[in-house]
Amino acid sequence: MTENLSESISLPPIVVIDDDQEDLDLIRLIGRKLQSPNELLLFNNPVTALDYLQRASQEPALIICDVNMPLINGFQFRSRLLETLPSFLQVPFYFLSTSKSPLETQHAQELKVSGYYQKSGSFEGFRDTLKTILMLAGIAI
User: Known SUPFAM superfamilies for this protein (predicted)?
Assistant: First the structure.
């Protein structure tokens, strides 16, 4: 039996928060195809994700978050995360959203995120965007 290298090294996970289950399924599929050694943790509820991050034993390697979600939106998520865990300012944080208005982009910059990307309507475009985010965050693929 072979040992999973990512388990033996215990690389920090990649955390993805998106209320759209189809997008999470697509991200899971793309993650498998890109073969990142980091575990991919997917959350469809931002409150659950925030609770997980507050209790986690290690900071994630990367956080990718949708903007338009129920309960709390991505901007509120980012604000609450930094209020409770200011050290997460050092964790690469990218917004990945269907919308990209100038106001949202400006708000994202004010929250000191690493980037704001618009979701592509095609599989290839979505894959390329995720690949870019992973590379910018220093994640091996």
Answer: CheY-like
